[in-house]
Structures are given as structure tokens and as C-alpha cells.
Amino acid sequence: MKYSVLFSLIFFNMLYGCAMYDDVVTLENRISLLEHRDAKSKKYNKELKSRLEEKEQALRNQSAELHAMHDQLKAEIQLIGGSIDETDYLLKQKLSDSDKITENRLEKIEKAAGLNKKRITRLEQYLNFESDENHLKIKSKPQSRQELSENELYTVSKQAFDAGDFETARKGFKNLINKFPKSAHADNAQFWIGEIYYSEKWYEKAMVEYQKVIEKYPKGNKVPASLLKQGFAFLNLGDKANARRRLIELVKKYSKSNEAKIATKKLKQL
User: Fold this and answer.
1) Burial 246-256 (b: 16+ CB within 10 A, else e)
2) H/E element holding 263?
3) 124 and 116 in contact (C-beta within 8 Å)?
4) From residue 182, how far is each of 49, 103, 138, 185, 187 by CA, in Å?
5) Structural domains counted in the chain
6) What is the residue range of 17's domain?
């Protein structure tokens, strides 16, 4: 009986031990499976994070490109606006100068009505022509050429400028300044020299010529226009800082001028 009980206890212990071993194996298998799943999950999360970072970088690059395009479009719009302002200003300037020329011509005609014949003779001599009763003919022998007056020289040079003959106009205006430095047309002539270089897109040289107007003829009527065109020239060279300074100076010193109105409008666009 004792052996039977002892044998039963041993058998149950062995059976229990086998059961414990199976549980441990099962538990280890489960832990291994969980570790595998965890490793797989980490790998997936890492790949997902990498993809998200790539997409984020792509979005940043796209955003930078859009900003660059926006800035470029904004600059182009400003350039177009500046061109419109310049065109409007030049048209007004030409109309104004045309009115002044017409007024000066009327005054000269009124004051020198009795000297018309003499002036015509002088012009004929300058152009190397002589008059006949019915027509003009070229002189057969060279004669001494009569010099034009300051008013005539300015008028001829301005007409050349309006016709687009910049070289003739430039020489004429320089000749006027050299021969008649105290002429009432000297500041205008200097300004138109700047305008010639501006029209030729030689903006650096144009600014130098405009500066001569500002320094040599500070009380002349072309100083506001010179400051304005200096600002436009800086803009065409891409120098917004100096352009802003020139336009601000114009608005402060000549606030009631038409040029100041154009400058104020331009400053709002910068």
C-alpha cells in the first residue's frame, strides 16, 4: 500500500513537471512571436517615418519654389508698373516741353518780327544754301558759316531728340552748354543729355548726367525730374535701396511737384 501511494506521488510529480515544461515552451514561443512582431512594427514605423520626412522635404521644396515664383512675378509686376509710370511721365514731359517750345516760338516771333528775313539768311548760310527769287540752290563756293543763337541751337537739338536722332541731339545740347553756359536753356539741355543716355539704357551714365543738373542748376525746373529719373535708373539696375532713397528725397524736397506724385506712387510698390 505504501509503495502504491509513493508510486502515485512520483507519477503525479512527473506529470506536473511535464506540464510546467510545456507551459514554459509555449510562453517562450509567444514571447519570441511578440518580439518578432515588435521588430517588424519598428521597421515599418521607421520606413513610414522616412517616407513622411521625404514628403515633408518635397513639400518644403515645392513651397520654396512657389515663393520664388511669387517674388519673381512681383518683381515683374513692379517692373511693368515702373515702365507704365515712365511712359506716362515721358508723355507728360514731352507735352509740357512742346507747350513751352510753342510759347517760346510765339514770343520770339512777336519780339523779332522785323528780323525774320535776317534770321532766314543766317540759317541759309549755316546750312550752306543761298536764296534766289524763286528757289534755293547750293552755293558753289564755301562761305563762312554763321553760328546759331542759343535759342536756335536748343530748338534744333530738341527737335533732333524728338525725332530719335540722339547723336545729333547730344552734340547740340553739349555745344549749347559749352558756348552758352549761362543760358536759360542750359539746365534743360543738361537734362536732355541724361534722357538720351537713359533712352539708350546706359543707366549709369544717365545718372551722372542727371546729377549734373542737380548740382549745377539747383534752382532749375529740371531738378525734380532728374531725381525721379535717377530713381527709375536705379530700379532698372536692380538697386531698390538707392532707388527708394532718391524717390524719398524727391518727395521731401519737392512735395507739390508732379514728379513727387509719381515717386509717391512708386514708393508704395517697393
Assistant:
1) bbeebbeebee
2) helix 258-269
3) no
4) 80, 21, 35, 8, 9
5) 3
6) 1-67
